[in-house]
Amino acid sequence: MDAPTRTAPTRTAPPTVRLDTARTQHAAAEPAHHTTAHDHHHGTATPTPHHPTADQDPHTRARTHLGRLWGVPATHTHLTTGADDTFDTLVRDTPLTPRDRIWTTPHESVARLHTLHTLRDRTRCRLEVVPLRPDGDLDLDWMRHHLDDDVALVSVTHLSPACGTVNPVTAIGRLLAPHRARYALDASHSAGLLPLDAAATGCHLLTADAFRFLNGPPDTGIAYTTPHPGAPAGSTPPPAPHPAAVTTLADTLTHHTPAATHPHTDHLPRLRAALARTPGITLLPTGTRQAGILAFRHDHLDAGTLRHALARRAVLLSKTVAHEHPLHPASRTGAPALHASLHPATTAHDIDRLAHTLTEVLHAHTHPTPHPRTPPTAPALPTPRTTPARPATPTPAPVRTLPTPRTPARSTPATPAPRSTPTLRSVPAPAAALPALPALPAFPAFPGSAGPGTRTAPSLAAVPALATPTTQATPTAPTAPAASGGHRPRTPPPAARRTRTAGRRGHLTLHRADHDTTTPRPPPGGQR
């Protein structure tokens, strides 16, 4: 019988809390959820299905909903690829002179600042920044004091993406209405989050991104334009999005338009209070009115590390850096900050989840868990290898062999060379070198001689040959081996060779070598 299989309990991952809608386009891939009056109490969102009619194409339907959202005629709306592309296309060819002026604010994004700098370099006009009051709002008194007919273009952001400040766009529109200035309004971070009446603001150009709080597809934007004398004549129309993106955007605006009329709970005060009571958190300064976006820093932990630690716990925030808003006071320090943006579908549970997770992350970084120290142990001895037991077999007794004696090597004495026997040889004297023999005196005649009283000289042929001994070979004694010090014994030089006159026979001088100097030898025959 098989044992019952135990299955480990499955742990459900906590839902992801998304508070980065203002910076990313991930919401475009999700269905558009917006709270209604019936479902708002339960914190759920039920989208209203839309069945398009056959007489309306997606482009016309999207523009109709867009005009209803902003309170403007649908014929003046446009579907584009993004707010920055639309602003660059409709502003870069504005006819300006060197005496004209352009106004911008510290909340301007780096993409729009690039377009304004390009326009200034082309026309040699002046670019001025409207200052902020001590409370963080735009200084309307400064604008009223410096406004004249030289101001040709004013660019204002509705909701600041740096820290969530809401600018008084309607009051600025009333201030600019009597003058020739063209009013351009950026609603990229407020469209779908804050209600906006474009006709009441008096703006001439309104641009926004549809992929942020409107939950549109990526790379889609919306725009509104009105005729203005300062607009370039025959300007290039803004770039149109892909037809599939237009269809998706039309469905998104269809779901959003009725839901936008219902009020929703603002959880920003709850978020601000949760961050204010967290130790080490510093909120970036904002104006008197704030909505949807809140930026903060930690005193000792950088924004990148804190963001990754929260993301590992399924809480998503975005990071803002100084070069995205170079004119904002929060960018003067250069340190990045965390950026939390609230969607209309954000609940109170999401705020509490962020506060709890942030406290855990900060506590883990400020009080890391120390690793237990283990005492040093002696190195483990090697484990002997075990081999399987084998049956015992009788082992024969070892045979003892005697070592073979080694015979020392003997040196063979050198055999003396045989002594050579002296060989007698006659050395004839050269005839030319022998002088004439003198006549010998007469001696008494010997018996049997030739005549009485005469003596004949002995013939040279009758003289026996004298022996001339050759050098006698003496056996050489064996040379002693060299000493251990490397010095070889010095061999005494041989004795000096002496010669002795062997005898005279007829003025012939014969020599022999005498090797024995101790015993003199008598001359042969006893003659001198």
State the total count of DSSP E strands. Answer: 15
Shape: elongated
Helix and strand content put the structural class at alpha/beta
Main sheet specs: 7 strands, mixed
Number of discrete helical segments: 10
Reading side by side through the largest sheet, how are the strands ordered?
2-8-7-6-5-3-4
Taking pLDDT < 50 over at least 5 consecutive residues as the criterion, the unreliable ranges are 26-52, 443-476, 478-486, 501-518
Q: What number is the mean pLDDT?
A: 74
Q: What's the helical proportion of residues?
A: 10-25%
Distance between the termini: 144 Å
Over all CA atoms, what is the radius of gyration? 64 Å
Strand content: 5-15%
